[in-house]
Amino acid sequence: MTEKQNLKQRLEAVNEYERTPIPKNKLKGWKSFIGTYAGEHTAGTEFVLGPLFVAHGASAGDLVSGLIVGNILAILSWAFFTGKVAVKTRVTLYYQLEKIAGNRFTLIYNIVNAALFCFLAGSMIAVSATAVGIPFNLQMPSLTDVYPNSVGWIITVFAIGAITTVVAMFGFNVISKFANIAAPWMIMVFIAAAVGVLPRLGINSFSDFWPIAESTIWNGIPLEGQSKFTFWHIMFFSWFCNMGMHIGMADMSILRYAKKWTYGFSTTGGVFLGHFIAWMASGILYSLFLLESNGSLVFAPGPIAYEAAGIAGAVCVVIAGWTTANPTLYRAGLAIQSINPKWKTWKVTLFVGIVTTIAACFPALVMQLLEFVALYGLILMPLGAVIFLDVFVLPKMGLASNYAELTKSHFNPAVGITWGISLVFCLGLNIWGGIEIFFLGLPGWFVAVFVYLLASKALQKKTANSSPTIPLTY
Amino acid sequence: MLTILKIISFIGLAFTLVPSFLVMKGVIDPQHSKILMLIGTIVWFITASFWMNKKENEEEAG
Question: How far apart (Å, rounded) are the C-alpha atoms in residues A47 and A313?
């Protein structure tokens, strides 16, 4: 009984400052961010996305150059967009958006956002399940699977979902600490798994690598039914695969704990380890799998890693999926909680965890991960543009920031118009212009900027140009 | 004590990485590499959990 009470007290004591700026004494050092981002970007998704470049026929030269340029652009976005806004406001994306757009708009946005986060976390739980299922001879999903293929799959997914949810219920500190410990080990396993199979591809020395990388691993020929990826696909994908987090401002939830905006650069390690080394490593593993299985359609990161690195490889898949699912679940919890701040964080996270686990049962979530990741970033992007402009640009134009809070309005139409027009524009480019989803983020962002400035100028009534929010001095 | 623990942790980490290069060079076979990686994994998680988050906690308190 006492233990139960203690647990409840601990859960209710988790205070994540949902509606107040992070106090100065709660700010975190570099190490916390480096660990969190390394854990997050060396993740279960890497076991899916790396093979994608192989399947889409990326050439070795395009892959390396595209990833370098795209990753640098992503890091700059984290620092100059998310870092600057997060440190200036020190609140979550959800609360900031409520001040700008009003609580009615935020309600819709939060539901959309939480659903997207749930699906992302769900796909990571599914990736972990492919490794956990190995000792039970679980029937693995294939590229064409949509529905769960066995009861065993559902049981495995529910077991992983339960653990993920319980950890997320204890808040950011627990997640951050585990990610810190797992991150260096995970990247070692990624590298080791790939290096260990190189002799099977005919690589026995470092000088053998590049010629075989060009001719065998990333030979520039897409698999049947897959489109061809060029330098531009790879560059834009690596820049925008986390668009929701940086330009879309979701990582305000994390970076509001940073002492300086430059902590946005702490993403560098994570991004290059995860979205360069880990993608290349998983690409090597998948390429070997395709060669040795004569192009099998089974798509299960767990067995591939187990075959290459033994039990350590399988455990790596589980933990990689888990360290992505956990912060994503935490973000989803924050999104839902901002609908009603009176709800307890742990209860909301429990609810979100159940929804996520149910979604994770469907393998289609993993197989369509590429399109989903691109869509998710695109949907959140216009609101990121709105927040950035509202914090930094509107005051310079003589317009009011936090307009909904200032006018005590429940809905700021300028934000609604911006979101709607930007997404319709992107949809139009996709349908009628034939522009692939990976390329829509950039023109969409400029449209969002243009529309928000124009709509704010047109719709803001003459008010005092000062925000009701007291500026922070740290 | 903490220094010894850290040294053991990094030896564990090295055990997860180095064997694969030995496989590439043909010094050991893949099966041995997998066993060494598992040992390295266990050593890392057991030892690193004692020191990895300590500095951060002290930094926050400071």
Answer: 11
Domain count, chain A: 1
Which residues on adjacent β-strands are paired with residue A298? A142
The per-residue pLDDT for range A218-228, each reduced to its tens digit, is 999 988 777 89
A112-124 burial, b at 16+ Cβ within 10 Å, e below that, comes to: bbbbbbbbbbbbb
Q: Which of A188, A204, A309 sits opposite B13 (nearest CB)?
A: A188
Rounded CA gap, A441 and A211, in Å?
A: 34
Question: Which one-letter amino acid corresponds to residue A43?
Answer: A
HSE of A298 in the Cβ direction (CA atoms, 13 Å)? 15
Distance set, CA A192 to CA A28, A304, B14, B22, B30 (Å): 32, 13, 10, 10, 11
Residues A180 and A39 sit within 8 Å (Cβ to Cβ): yes
Q: For residue B13, list chain A residues with Cβ-Cβ distance below 8 A.
A: 184-185, 188
Q: How far is A202 from chain B (nearest CA, A)?
A: 10
Supply φ then ψ for residue A431, to 5 degrees: -75, -55
Find the CB nearest A192 among B37, B49, B52. Answer: B37
In a domain, A250, yes or no: yes
Looking at residue A168, which CATH number applies to its domain? 1.10.4160.10
Say yes or no for a CB contact (<8 Å) between A195 and B20: yes
Length, in residues, of chain B: 62
Give the C-alpha separation, A401 to A469, whole Å. 9
Measured between alpha carbons, how far is A328 from A164 in angstroms, rounded to an integer?
10
Asked if A72 contacts A276 with a C-beta cutoff of 8 angstroms, the reply is no
What is the sign, positive or negative, of the torsion defined by CA atoms of B7, B12, B15, B16? negative
Using CA atoms, how far apart are residues A367 and A152, in angstroms rounded to an integer? 19
Q: Report DSSP state, residue A148.
A: -
Segments forming the whole domain that contains residue A187: 26-371
H, E, C per residue of chain B: CHHHHHHHHHHHHHHHHHHHHHHHCCCCCHHHHHHHHHHHHHHHHHHHHHHCCHHHHHHHHC
Give the pLDDT band (50/70/90) at residue A262: very high
Tell me A432's DSSP state: T
Q: Contact A191/A281 with Cβ under 8 angstroms?
A: yes
Report if residue A137 sits inside a domain.
yes
What pTM does this model have? 0.86
pLDDT in tens, A45-74: 888 889 888 988 999 999 999 999 999 999
Query: Two tokens at B17?
Result: 């990485």
Q: CB of A115 within 8 A of CB of A337?
A: no
- A198 pLDDT tier (thresholds 50, 70, 90): very high
Helices (H), A80-171: 84-89, 93-101, 103-132, 151-169
- All residues of chain B having their beta carbon less than 8 Å from the beta carbon of residue A177 are 52-53, 56
